[in-house]
Design brief:
The complex is a heterodimer of chains A (62) and B (148). Chain A has 62 residues and is α+β, with helices and mostly antiparallel strands. Chain A has 1 helix and 3 strands; from the N terminus they run αβββ. Chain B is an alpha+beta fold and 148 residues long. Chain B has a domain of 102 residues. In chain B, the strands form 2 sheets. Chain B has a two-stranded parallel ribbon. Chain B has a two-stranded antiparallel ribbon with strand order 3-4. In chain B, β3 and β4 form a beta hairpin. The interface between A and B is large, with 46 and 77 residues.
C-alpha cells in the first residue's frame, strides 16, 4: 500500500510538472519526428499541416 | 465509442498517430499485475499487458511497442517516443492522453490527464465538431458568389 501511495504521488508530480507547459487549445502543437516500431518510416507532425487534422493517441502496453 | 471505432469512422479524413510512450505499470515500477488487482485488470481490459518490464533501450522500447500494436489492434500505426521521453514530456502525455491538432497545426482538443481523462468519445465529438466547422468553411469559400 505504501508503495502504491509513493508511485501515485510520483505520477501526480510528473503530470503536474509537465502539464503546466503542455499545449492548450489554440496553441501550436509542438512538432516532433518519430519512427515506427521498426525504427523506420519517420513521421513528422508538421508534415500534415495544411493537409489533414491529426489525432494523437498516447499510451503504453500496461 | 472506442479508438478502433473512431479510426474506422474517420481515418480517411483524420490522420491518426499512436505514440508509444514509457510504460505506465511495468513489473519493475508501479505494477498492478499481482493479486486480485491484476486479476481484475485482466478481466476488465484483457488486451492490456501485466507482464512487461520498463524498456531500458530504444530497441526494447520498439519491441514492446510492436507487441502493443499487435495486441491492441486499433488499426492505428504506432510510432515510438525516444528514450529521452521528449514528446511525452512536451504533451504531458504519460500515462495516456488524447489530442486533436487542426490543419493549421494548432491544438483543437486536449484530453484530460490520463488515465481518467482518456475519453475517446470526447475526442470523437471534437473531431465531429472540427470537421463540421472546417467543411462549412470550405463550403463557404467554394460557393460561388451570386451577384444581382
Amino acid at each position: 500500500m505504501t508503495n502504491t501511495i509513493q508511485h501515485r504521488k510520483a505520477a501526480t508530480a510528473w503530470q503536474k510538472r509537465y502539464d503546466a507547459h503542455a499545449p492548450k487549445v489554440g496553441d501550436m502543437a509542438p512538432d516532433f519526428e518519430l519512427h515506427d516500431v521498426n525504427g523506420q518510416n519517420p513521421v513528422r507532425l508538421s508534415d500534415f499541416r495544411g493537409q489533414k487534422p491529426v489525432a494523437l493517441v498516447f499510451g503504453s502496453f500496461t | 465509442m472506442s479508438l478502433h471505432d473512431l479510426y474506422q469512422k474517420y481515418h480517411d479524413r483524420v490522420q491518426f498517430l499512436s505514440i508509444y510512450i514509457r510504460e505506465a505499470h511495468p513489473v519493475d515500477g508501479w505494477w498492478l499485475g499481482k493479486g486480485i488487482t491484476g486479476k481484475m485488470l485482466k478481466l476488465a481490459r484483457s488486451k492490456v499487458a501485466t507482464d512487461v518490464y520498463d524498456p531500458k533501450t530504444i530497441e526494447e522500447r520498439r519491441q514492446v511497442a510492436g507487441n502493443c500494436e499487435t495486441a491492441l489492434q486499433y488499426g492505428i500505426h504506432t510510432y515510438v517516443d525516444e528514450m529521452d521521453d521528449a514528446v511525452n514530456k512536451a504533451y504531458a502525455a504519460w500515462p495516456t492522453r488524447l489530442y486533436l491538432v487542426g490543419v493549421d497545426g494548432r491544438v483543437v482538443y486536449h484530453g484530460g490527464l490520463g488515465p481518467f481523462g482518456f475519453k475517446p468519445a470526447a475526442l470523437g465529438k471534437a473531431i465531429t465538431d472540427y470537421l463540421s466547422q472546417t467543411e462549412n468553411s470550405d463550403t463557404l469559400i467554394e460557393t460561388p458568389t451570386i451577384h444581382s
